[in-house]
Design brief:
The complex is a heterodimer of chains A (about 250) and B (about 300).
Chain A: E1 2-6, E2 9-11, E3 33-35, H1 37-51, E4 57-64, H2 69-78, E5 82-87, H3 94-108, E6 112-116, H4 127-135, E7 139-149, E8 152-159, E9 162-169, E10 172-176, H5 188-194, E11 199-203, H6 204-207, E12 215-221, E13 230-231, H7 235-244
Parallel strand pairs in A: 1-4, 1-6, 4-5, 5-11, 6-10, 7-10
Antiparallel strand pairs in A: 2-3, 7-8, 8-9
Helix pairs in contact in A: 2-5, 3-4
Chain B: E1 3-6, E2 9-10, E3 13-14, H1 17-25, E4 32-38, H2 42-49, E5 54-61, H3 70-80, E6 86-90, H4 93-105, E7 110-114, E8 116-119, E9 122-127, E10 132-138, E11 143-147, E12 162-166, E13 175-182, E14 195-199, H5 210-219, E15 222-225, H6 227-231, E16 252-256, H7 262-268, E17 273-278, E18 291-294, H8 297-307
Parallel strand pairs in B: 1-4, 1-6, 4-5, 5-12, 6-11, 7-11, 14-15, 14-16, 16-17, 17-18
Antiparallel strand pairs in B: 2-3, 8-9, 9-10
Helix pairs in contact in B: 3-4, 5-8
The chains are: A alpha/beta (about 250), B alpha/beta (about 300).
The complex binds flavin-adenine dinucleotide.
Flavin-adenine dinucleotide (FAD) sits at the interface of chains B and A.
């Protein structure tokens, strides 16, 4: 079985982004970029399934400008067998991304697509579910455990009330939550080896799919600023303040 | 513009989000219909019918909707969608699981985590872990939105809507429910609590969370946690507060042994009053705390419990 893992290039999770002066977006000049952490978890899971002999090939794909090759290269160093870049200079909306991925799925015919549950830049949490809808496949979102048995994927999902386990008929879509695994670091020999692995570059136009931007950003502003308060010296002072100043306890 | 709202429920009880989605729906100045899907949900439909602003309750009762799995429920909503301009669900794990699937079936985008509805096509939402707030305009023919219910008030229980049964069935051969483990707690739900006390890696073990429980009992508080505390297995996953966990905005949030990473702040910095208890006086959590207490939590917590 082949596994496809779409990955996104995003700002590194340690960076505290700032809104730009023009209030049109966030300032990303000289900011460290990385594979979205949830996508890294997806890649790790696919690689582990290959190491267990369940998957035969791991293919990773990213949609975006040329520079996304950096993240695909990292994906190859982590253990993906090959990579595809769908090159697109502008940012398509989430539905268009899902449609482009559907085309990749149709070309590659994977038995399983594993994606991150959300990108830490847009915070959308949509792509996997949309792709599942477009393909007519079942979905197991927010996975903290994944087992492939016979023709099914058993997915334990992190839900608001606890955990839920579903059995999905393959082919299926799985999106990852934080507890699924702890991604490895790429070793130096694997980084060297990755330089020789292939990255296929396909222009969006060549896929023959209409790409839209139906969600327009009108304005981006910083959040309401929260001023640091005071330090209290003792528990007694804290309780007194909460009662008489903040009036949040009785 | 007519709005279809997806109602979440559990064990015959309607969840609190629906009442908040109804006040969000008022912004579209049309009729609000609420869909209740499940295998045994007449009682839920009755509860919905009493909420102010509901003009019709649609009930789809069939075993195929048990556990409200995304595959059949999204098909059901797709079938109903032609009558509506707007489809709303809460930004809960259920809403996030379901609604993008609905949007894609309808060939439109979804706007996630809406905190303000400015006009019928312009919405406000946080992104980048709440470090930026975007105003976005949707050019799609239908608006499919997940709503951060903490940003909206509940409507009152003054309604008397008609209940209509649907007989649509979508057999689901693709996904099977196996089991679920629900975290049992007599405490308020995190997203609905007035007071929350959360523990982080500084708690050192799951057993030490009893130190928070005594205080939670006195304050009627819910208990939350940082990702580090969940990853370490101190507490279950559904206690995680943050960018990728639950978003909360109680009157009082007490962070104990939590450093205040961007991802944690994203989930709680809209709380009215924030208290931080941490032994490191430079911990970033103090930058958002109204009241900070520097010290060892193992000494402070018993004192706090005693003095409340
Ligand atoms: C993709 C992604 C998503 C994430 N999503 C979330 C999320 O939703 N929610 C979330 O919380 N995190 C999230 N994180 C993790 C986040 O980056 C931090 O790692 C995490 O919040 C740290 O948890 P913590 O504050 O408990 O632990 P630490 O950062 O280790 O802080 C522990 C604190 O406890 C204090 N302490 C220790 N002992 C004592 C004592 N005896 N008395 C008093 N104080 C003490 C220390 O001074 C320290 O400040 C995410 C990370 C990534 C990459």
């Amino acid at each position: 079985m082949k596994i496809l893992v779409p990955i996104k290039r995003v700002v590194d999770y340690n960076v505290k982004v700032k809104v730009n002066r023009e209030e049109t977006g966030v300032d990303l000049t000289n900011v460290k970029m990385a594979i979205n952490p949830f996508c890294e978890i997806a890649l790790e899971e696919a690689i582990r399934l290959k190491e267990k002999g369940i998957a035969s090939e791991v293919v990773t794909v990213s949609i975006g400008p040329q520079v996304c090759q950096e993240q695909l290269r990292t994906g190859l160093a982590l253990g993906a067998d090959r990579a595809i870049l769908i090159e697109s200079e502008q940012a398509p909306d989430a539905l268009s991304i899902a449609k482009l991925l559907r085309q990749v799925v149709e070309n590659e015919q994977p038995g399983l697509v594993i994606l991150g549950k959300q990108a830490i830049d847009s915070d959308n949490n949509q792509t996997g579910q949309m792709l599942a809808a477009l393909l007519g496949w079942p979905q197991g979102t927010f996975a903290s455990k994944l087992e492939v048995k016979d023709n099914e994927a058993w997915v334990t999902r992190e839900v608001d009330g606890g955990l839920q386990t579903l059995a999905l008929t393959l082919p299926a879509i799985v999106t990852t939550d934080l507890r699924l695994n702890e991604p490895r670091y790429a070793s130096l020999p694997n980084i060297m080896k990755a330089k020789r692995k292939p990255i296929d570059v396909i222009a969006v136009a060549d896929l023959g799919i209409a790409v839209n931007s139906n969600v327009q950003t009108i304005k981006v502003t910083p959040p309401a600023k929260r001023e640091a308060g005071i330090k209290v010296a003792s528990v007694a002072e804290l309780v007194e303040k909460l009662k008489n100043e903040a009036k949040v306890i009785g | 513009m007519n709005v279809l709202i997806y109602a979440e429920h559990e064990h015959g009880q309607l969840k609190g989000e629906t009442a908040k989605l109804l006040s969000a729906a008022e912004r579209f100045a049309g009729e609000s219909h609420v869909l209740v899907a499940g295998d045994n949900c007449q009682a839920v439909a009755e509860q919905v019918a009493h909420l102010a602003g509901v003009s019709k309750v649609l009930v789809a009762e069939h075993s195929c909707y048990a556990h409200q799995l995304a595959e059949p429920v999204s098909q059901l909503i797709e079938q109903l969608a032609s009558d509506y301009d707007v489809i709303l669900a809460a930004s809960t794990t259920t809403g996030k699981n379901l609604l993008p699937r609905v949007a894609a079936l309808l060939d439109v985008n979804q706007i996630s985590d809406v905190i303000e509805i400015q006009t019928a096509d312009t919405f406000v939402r946080p992104f980048y872990a709440g470090n930026a707030i975007a105003t976005v305009k949707s050019l799609d023919s239908k608006k499919v939105l997940t709503i951060r219910t903490a940003a909206f008030d509940s409507v009152l229980n003054t309604g008397q809507a008609e209940i209509v049964s649907l007989d649509k069935v979508f057999e689901n051969g693709q996904s099977r429910f196996i089991d679920e483990t629900q975290t049992k707690s007599a405490r308020p739900e995190l997203t609905a609590a007035d007071v929350i006390i959360s523990g982080g890696r500084g708690m050192q073990s799951g057993e030490n969370f009893v130190l928070l429980e005594g205080i939670a009992d006195k304050l009627g508080a819910a208990i939350g946690a940082s990702r580090a505390a969940v990853d370490a297995g101190f507490v279950p996953n559904d206690l995680q507060v943050g960018q990728t966990g639950k978003i909360v905005a109680p009157n009082l949030y007490i962070a104990v042994g939590i450093s205040g990473a961007i991802q944690h702040l994203a989930g709680m910095k809209d709380s009215k009053i924030i208290v931080a208890i941490n032994k490191d006086e430079d911990a970033p959590i103090f930058q958002v705390a109204d009241y900070g207490l520097v010290g060892d939590l193992f000494e402070i917590l018993p004192q706090l419990e005693a003095q409340l």
